[in-house]
What we know:
Layout: H1 2-11, H2 16-23, E1 45-47, H3 57-66, E2 67-70, H4 76-90, E3 104-112, H5 117-130, E4 141-155, E5 166-171, E6 175-181, E7 188-193, E8 198-201, H6 204-207, E9 209-213, E10 220-221, E11 224-225, E12 231-237
Antiparallel strand pairs: 1-7, 2-8, 3-4, 4-9, 4-12, 5-8, 5-12, 6-7, 6-9, 10-11
Amino acid sequence: MRLLTLNLLRSCNFDLNKLRFFCSTEKVIEPKSEIQKISGDPSLIEFHPSWKADEETDLRKQVLRDMRVIPDFINETEEISLLSEVEPQLKRMRYEFDHWDNAIEGYRETERQAWNEQNSVTLARVRSVAFDNGIELLPHTHVLDLAPAGYIKPHVDAVRFCGDTIAGLCLLSGAVMRLMHENSPDYVLDALLPRRSLYIMSGVVRYQFNHAVLSNEKSVWRGGKLIKKRRVAIITREQPKKPSDLI
């Protein structure tokens, strides 16, 4: 009977691969093909007065392309779901104040490779928006938990740990990120990272600028104080380039 059925399907030009797909119980999480690259909100980027509008205008344009902040990328339900999966591990850890390269104060961090179905869908959406097709990503997602009094000092990411692009979901609290050009310290900008936003950094802002998440003592957005509460970032990173690619 089984052989008769298969022969009948073949005679009707039925795609047997589709049959295997519909009969399979394994769920494969893939982003929807219609997802398009989303531009960041330029109103969430502010250049300091020290970077005059007529100076390095091409660099300014490149910064706005390479530093994208997309507000309300996830909703409250998705935020709760992501937190519920990482909280059990984070709660077993204590906040650290002696980061190995002196870059962070008041943090807990971990990495996670496997996610539940709902969170896998959310992170697939991050990958679709933030990374070009074919880009190889690090298999583990970085989870960085900053205490209310925690902050990240100015630094440039090491190329040996991650590649050109990183994308971070901001949970629980907004924060202000400051970027300063490594060779021209007057070229400074702030990026507001609202709660539930996605920020995407690549190109010049990764390697020509250092970046920091400001402490509450320094955290100001457009003249007003912005108090950061506890903040959890879920960060997807590109694979670092091979040594031969850096020559």
